Amino acid sequence: MTLSKALLLGAALAAVACAAPVTLTGDSGSDPCAVLGTLSLNQTTYQHVRSCYRSIEFNPAQAKTTLDSLYTLYNDVFVFRDAALTPDLALPFSSPPVDIMAGLEKIRQKKYSRDFDFHSDLRSLAVSLNDAHVSYAAGCYSSIAFVQPISLYAPVIDGRQAIRVYEDATDENFKDCEVVTIDGEDATSYLQSWVDKRTGYSKDAGVRFNNALGTFSYSQPTQTWAAKTGEFSMRAILPESEHLTYGLRCDAVKGDLHYRAHWTVVHQLQFTDKASFLKNVCERPPPTPPPQAGLAAKGTKHYKRDLETELKEQLWKEAHRQKYEEKQRSLLSKRAVGEAAPSPQDLTDAVFVAGNVTAVYQLKSQPHVGILAVPTMIVEVATEASTIQRYMTLLAERNVTHLIIDTFGNGGGDVSFASLLIQVLFPSQDKSTAAQRSRFRATPMVATLADADIKNTTYAGFYDPELLADKATFTPFKTNPFLSAENITLNGREASYTQELYMDYNLTAVDQGIKHPWTNDASKLTLLTDGQCGSACGMFADLLVNRHGVKAVAVGGHTKKDLSMFSYAGAAVTSLDQFVDSFEALGLTPPLQRLPYTNTVNVGFIELFSGNETVPLEYDPARHVAAHRLDYTPETARNHDQLWAAVAGVAWA
Ligand SMILES: *[C@@H]1O[C@H](CO)[C@@H](O)[C@H](O)[C@H]1NC(C)=O
Ligand SMILES: *[C@@H]1O[C@H](CO)[C@@H](O)[C@H](O)[C@H]1NC(C)=O
Ligand SMILES: *[C@@H]1O[C@H](CO)[C@@H](O)[C@H](O)[C@H]1NC(C)=O
Ligand SMILES: *[C@@H]1O[C@H](CO)[C@@H](O)[C@H](O)[C@H]1NC(C)=O
Ligand SMILES: *[C@@H]1O[C@H](CO)[C@@H](O)[C@H](O)[C@H]1NC(C)=O
Ligand SMILES: *[C@@H]1O[C@H](CO)[C@@H](O)[C@H](O)[C@H]1NC(C)=O
Ligand SMILES: *[C@@H]1O[C@H](CO)[C@@H](O)[C@H](O)[C@H]1NC(C)=O
């Protein structure tokens, strides 16, 4: 269980536990939330949720607090306020300029009657940046999941790419039917324009496309690979309409047909009417105890996880566990080639050698090829690097000489783990070979915060200079770098930034004496990605490729078009609450108020530069392009071992 999930579920349960007993008053017909709250899940429809959402009135006082806090966060903390104005970003990026301050002002001027519309506009503004570090998730309208009975993917068959059915939870046997149209439009264009408007995962349109579609990821509790429903078919936000109509082309027997699919509604919320919905789901619970001192020093700083995605997965798994797992087993058992795997951890063509949070495999068809799966950067930083060194020794003992580093499902985590993983592969006493230059926005309020933090011996927050290192010597600061700010004008706007610095990491977590056949040898390493390797994963990928010369194979996207290796790597993230926590923990008055809602609000607040570049990595498309791009086939999209074999073929042909 990850921190954000724990916090989220914890908060929801706490709110339920301490809510005053609620009695149903009046007739529930006039309160759509009362209807929603009393229906069992199998009776709940899209319309029930929509009616409840739309019945909540706009609250001008709460909206003002929200807008004021967002103004300060976006204006003074968000590190890409001005970079986001950059026009004409080169391919593979496809992301128009955004004036976040003007967007916020427009929302302030608009007259709302529904609360839902207000929060939806704030979400759309955050999404328009195409930077998953900037998010606005209203707890009120992102705690119920909507699931389609089929998920989609886009394999290439006989040189032609088409949308097809990936997972099928219907009893119609639609698996691999071509999806020719969605709601009457060409399916590929429909999906692309949907992700361009509704998801902000990446500045690369091909990565956004991947994000919408089904894929595979490694899961630590079972140590197995499981199909993951893409953003298009499983959502935490209210869909545009109550159903989708797919124009399907199946086999000769079935022919062409139209299939209308309603959304299945999934949630675990407890409420009985509008008042308790507001209290239990939307509104901030009573203040929690102050954050623990030294949280950051324990290695959880610069923590990032996409809350909405996580919430959806949790809900879907809880409510549909049996059906889901049953479908998954059938997906996995229908192998194109090969015999059954000997243990649940093994794949037909790959032996599971060792694993827990990360894992290593050896390919049977190409025994010199090993795989290191790194599905997250949320790890025990003090021990995971040495665990990986031990796993790698097991691979070397089996005569593995070449290593694929599989980053599927990795949306980031701890920045220092990104550095340590580079140190495992390319050990160096020069710490700068495993870190990017970076800098913060520097305003008087954060200078004050950093000052208090450096003086406090027990607390280490996001702005603690002792967790940051000087650029020239890579040693932690003893003085406050936020005091020597420099003004920079970008896209016509001026802002003050710190000097360039590094985020520090503890090199002793890696035993530099341990060497493997691929240590310090870029030609024996390959990075495998679908472009969704985000945040700290992206920082790792940038260092591995752009600094140490490893080549990447990116899978999926649009055939014959370049695809990014990673997304939103150019920054570290803070939430609005974490920012306020730092001030409160140090006894300072925060410069902005917490929101009156359970919302999750994040911004990128430390920008990074790849190599000697002067453009921040987040706005540097050339540094994102993968050396190789591979199309999915139905086989490689469903059998991860076959994908590994194909990647080894591309990398070491
Ligand atoms: C619907 O859900 C309720 C409560 O979970 C259950 O008792 C009932 O059998 C379900 N009905 C159908 C038709 O599945
Ligand atoms: C597996 O990882 C979890 C989470 O980091 C950890 O608590 C557990 O001790 C690990 N198990 C083993 C056998 O290393
Ligand atoms: C590894 O290679 C050595 C030398 O060729 C050989 O003796 C040994 O049996 C091989 N080990 C495995 C596990 O294949
Ligand atoms: C630097 O920029 C900030 C923000 O625009 C401005 O308030 C400040 O006066 C500028 N400082 C200098 C020295 O120009
Ligand atoms: C670095 O890690 C080692 C081993 O875990 C620990 O003993 C040491 O105190 C750490 N150093 C710092 C500066 O945190
Ligand atoms: C240092 O921070 C801790 C944790 O927030 C706090 O309890 C303590 O009062 C602070 N010490 C000083 C001297 O401000
Ligand atoms: C920056 O440029 C210098 C001089 O060309 C070079 O030696 C150094 O390796 C470069 N640094 C990085 C991080 O690429």
Secondary-structure map:
Layout: H1 3-18, H2 32-38, H3 46-54, H4 60-77, H5 100-109, H6 115-127, E1 135-137, E2 145-147, E3 150-153, E4 156-157, E5 160-161, E6 164-168, E7 178-182, E8 185-186, H7 187-198, H8 205-212, E9 215-219, E10 224-228, E11 234-235, E12 243-249, E13 256-262, E14 264-266, H9 274-282, H10 307-333, E15 350-355, E16 359-363, E17 369-373, H11 381-397, E18 402-406, H12 415-425, E19 437-440, H13 444-455, E20 468-470, E21 486-490, E22 493-497, E23 501-503, E24 525-529, H14 536-547, E25 551-555, E26 571-575, H15 576-585, E27 600-609, E28 628-630, H16 634-638, H17 640-651
Parallel strand pairs: 17-18, 18-24, 24-25, 25-28
Antiparallel strand pairs: 1-27, 2-11, 2-14, 3-6, 4-5, 7-8, 7-12, 9-10, 12-13, 15-16, 16-17, 19-27, 20-23, 21-22, 26-27
Task: Write up what this structure looks like.
This protein is α+β, with helices and mostly antiparallel strands. It has 3 domains: 204 residues, PDZ domain (Pdz3 Domain, Roll); 204 residues, 2-enoyl-CoA Hydratase, Chain A, domain 1, CATH 3.90.226.10; 120 residues, no CATH class. It has a 7-stranded mixed sheet, sandwiched between helices. The N terminus is likely disordered. The chain binds 2-acetamido-2-deoxy-beta-D-glucopyranose (NAG) (7 copies). Keywords: Signal. It comes from Mortierella alpina.
